Amino acid sequence: MHGPVAVGGHAPCGGRDEQAAGELVINGRFLCQPATGVQRVAREFVLALERLLVRGEFPGLRARLVAPAGAEFGSLNLARIATQHLAGGTGHYWEQVTLPRYAGGAHLLCLGNLAPLRSLIAGAPVAVMLHDQSFRTFKGDYSLPYRLFHEVVGHFLVRRARPLITVSQTEAEAIRAANGGRPEQLVVAPNGSWMNDEPAPPRPAPDTAAPPYVLHVGGFSERKNVGRVFAAAEVLAGDGVEVRLVGRPNARCEEWLEGLSPEVRAKVRFTGFVDNAQLTRLYSEAACLMYPSLYEASGLPPSEAMRLGCPVVVSDLPVLRERCGEAALYCDPLDAASLVARVRDVLGDPVLARRLSQRGQARSQIFSWENQARIIVRALVPAS
């Protein structure tokens, strides 16, 4: 980023004439979207950057979070990052038309896989976090218009983003492999492990009076291996183990439930979306997290579970090896019996469960949102 960094405080919507070209503008469209993994990462980045600025890191940096009219800034409680609503539509229109008009020559940071095409084509300084390209592999999870739009934008991202950012070494290699070796330089900024980098609450002692439950956190899609999640859940429920499934149920969930016996169905619970307090409690009290995803750029739920001392069983994928190391048990994601076997190993061996819990808590300390924010800011502002 070139030129003096300017702009601070909160301001009403205004044009770029009043803004210095060197400021960092953060695309806040994520505040208007459902809080799935990408949006949670964006929120954690903003909060981490705020903490760094409050503590005096990057003393010359001033940043502004801009979002469509109606976006809610209050829960972020920002003091050092300015916030601003930009009137002019919502969704893709706001991001592709309103945002680039405002950003002008400022360095624009987009944290959610997309950026304004107009800015990329014009060669404006746009940094983009590209989490994954799962739409290419798991086409059934995405509509044709979605895939075509991301293909077009992705073409320019890998050629024009300054810089392109991703969240794991494994994903960086996958991006290059899918794009003919481009870009040669990728900034790898790993995700953190727990909300706001706060110390995780202590894991409660097992309640011997309460039956154990196995947890799954994530969507019910092909990419998340929904068929084998359900197959494993049915077997475990048949063992008498409660299975709690966190995420928004869809038609496939209802169809599966209808085919279960009353005894098995009684052991299966769809929680829907949960708030942070509920998610904390679920991780803290679960006997095990099962996460047999077929594709991940990083894997946020296993990291969160490990931070809270919950043993994890994950797919044997390079990216999850990169993330979890020796702190997890690994299953064959193409074999539901492998998943069930590893979960049974945890449930049946308290010593193993305790060892995984301790290793997971230690492993999770490697990753923090503040380190991610430092990596990104230093890539944007090399002199900082």
Structural summary, described in words:
- There is one protein chain.
- The chain is an alpha/beta fold.
- The chain folds into two domains: 16-192 and 368-380, Rossmann fold; 196-364, Glycogen Phosphorylase B (Rossmann fold).
- It has 15 helices and 13 strands.
- It has helices at residues 37-54, 91-103, 117-122, 134-137, 144-160, 169-178, 226-238, 251-258, 262-265, 276-285, 300-307, 318-324, 336-348, 350-364, 369-380; strands spanning 24-27, 63-68, 81-86, 107-110, 126-129, 164-166, 187-188, 213-217, 242-246, 268-272, 288-291, 312-315, 329-331.
- The strands form two sheets. The chain has a seven-stranded parallel sheet. A six-stranded parallel sheet has the order 10-9-8-11-12-13, sandwiched between helices.
- Helix 7 packs across helix 13 and helix 11 (300-307) packs across helix 14 (350-364).
- Mean pLDDT is 89; it is low at 1-22.
